[in-house]
Each structure stands twice: as C-alpha cells, then as structure tokens.
Amino acid sequence: MTPSGPFDPDGITWTRVSTRLVHARLITAGLTLAVPLVVGVVLALTLSPWWWFLGGGAAVVLLESIVVIPRQVAAIGYAERDDDLLIRRGILFRTLVVVPYGRMQYVDVQAGPLDHRLKIATLQLHTASTSTDATIPGLPPHEADRLRDQLAARGESRLAGL
C-alpha cells in the first residue's frame, strides 16, 4: 500500500487483526437486528402493512453490515515502533492513534464470551488522557498476551508509566 498522508507513515509495516473479528461483529449485528426484523414482519402480517418499514429497515441495515463490517475490520491495524505504538482504524472516518510507551499507565486484555468462543481478545491501553481510544480488538489470545507483556516492559523501561 502506498503511503497516504498522516494515516500511513513511511516505513511502517501494519499488523492486521484476526479475521475472526468479522464473525464476532456480524453475529452481534445479526442478533441485534433480528428483533426489529421479526417484530416488523409479524406486525406487518397481522396488523398493518406499514410495519414492513420496520422489518425492511432492519433487513437493509443487516445487509449493509454484511458489506461494511469486513472492510472495517480490514482497516484495523497496529504497528510497534521504538518509542510508541500506532493504532489505525476506519474507512470513511479514519483515525490514527499514537501512544508513547512512556505515557501508558497500564494495559488490559479483555475477552467476552463470544470473543472467547472465537478465540480473540481486545487489548486496551490506558493513559493519563481519558479521551485516548487506544484499543486493538480482534487479537489472537497469544498475540494479545505477547503485546501486553511487551508494552508493559517498554512502558517500565521509560519510567514514566505503568
């Protein structure tokens, strides 16, 4: 990929997250949209055809999710540099977060029931700034453990965090 401004710095090799994150997000979207879809269809068949708008709207959002979610997951990446960690995400609204190792306070690894079943985890970096969204979802557990330990060690070596 050719560098495109601030979101693709020169000399950076991005590490992608697991494609199992696509499955997790599609399952979540499907379960969330199943309720309005079923309710809309049942009410349209029993009460009024106007309820097709609810079921149809949920179906459209579900189809859009099937197209967009794989692209969103493919846009998530991270890169470790000597002094900081880069995290990027987004297709239309792109974000690049740079977290200096010395500013980290602690590193969390989380996995809910669905994440555990799909063998993925989320790594979250906590800094002094409450507005920092330094999370990397969809990591294989062994990579999340490795990254957590490495980031903690780098933070300790900078003597400013952790």
Automatic annotation (TrEMBL):
The keyword RNA-binding does not apply. Residues 75-151 form the YdbS-like PH domain. Keywords: Membrane, Transmembrane, Transmembrane helix. PANTHER family: TRANSMEMBRANE PROTEIN-RELATED (PTHR34473:SF3), UPF0699 TRANSMEMBRANE PROTEIN YDBS (PTHR34473). This is YdbS-like PH domain-containing protein. The lineage of its organism: Bacteria, Bacillati, Actinomycetota, Actinomycetes, Micrococcales. The chain crosses the membrane at residues 26-44, 50-69. It comes from the Bacteria. It comes from Paraoerskovia marina.
